[in-house]
Amino acid sequence: SPISSRQRLRWFITNSIGPSHLFGGAITSAFGTAVDRPKEYGPHWGGFADRNGMRMTGIVTGNAMEAGIGYAIREDPRYFRVPERPFKSRVGNVVKMTFYARQYDGTYGLAYARFAAISGNNFLSNSWRVSSEANTHDAILRTGEGFAGRMAANAFEEFWPDVKRYVFHKHNRE
Predict the structure, then answer these.
(1) What is the rounded distance in angstroms from the CA atom of residue 8 to the CA atom of residue 3?
(2) 3 state SS of 4
(3) Nearest-CA neighbor of 119 among 140, 150, 97?
(4) Other residues' Cβ atoms within 10 Å of the Cβ of residue 134
């Protein structure tokens, strides 16, 4: 069945401030701090906070755009796992669902809302970024990183339940 308004709101919140997304943001912000990019923020805790805050503005803006545009054109932004399929097919689903979305009729098509949101928010954010990264070149790089981040999130959603079950399972002791 098509995504409901409540499910769309849940998707927006979870994909903006959910634990796995916050963890991923901490990793990327730590890396940016370690290499001190952009230099305006500095290589310290304050710089880490600035990088993470800037990342959050992009994530929240992009997710709001994807949810809103997706609502208007009836696209479902959620990732759908295929745990019954072989590993190679599951990896293919991770890649496919980075660029495709489920439509209102249950078919899959290009994720137009996602394309607009990821590219749009990265160019829009040039208006509030520090000058060294507020340009077309960096916006294009951030757009590529946005799709890579979506693919990583899809992979996490696809495989984490299996890893968790395998690693944290309880042994039957007799």
Answers:
(1) 6
(2) coil
(3) 140
(4) 15
Contact call for residues 63 and 38 (beta carbons, < 8 A): no
Token pair belonging to 164: 């968790």
Nearest to 14 by CA among 72, 52, 66: 66
**Cβ proximity of 70 and 77 under 8 Å:** yes
DSSP secondary structure string for all residues of 126-138: GGTS-GGG-SHHH
Q: How far apart are CA 43 and CA 53, in angstroms?
A: 15
User: How far, in Å, CA of 52 to CA of 46, rounded?
Assistant: 10
Per DSSP, which regions of the chain are E strands? 75-76, 100-103, 108-110
**Residue for token digits 């994909």?**
15
Query: pLDDT by residue for the chain (174 residues), tens digit each?
Result: 899 999 999 999 999 999 888 888 899 999 999 999 999 999 999 999 999 999 999 999 999 999 999 999 999 999 999 999 999 999 999 999 999 999 999 999 999 999 999 999 999 999 999 999 999 999 999 999 999 999 999 999 999 999 999 998 765 555
In degrees rounded to 5, what are phi and psi of residue 15?
-80, -5
Q: Is the pTM of this model over 0.70?
A: yes
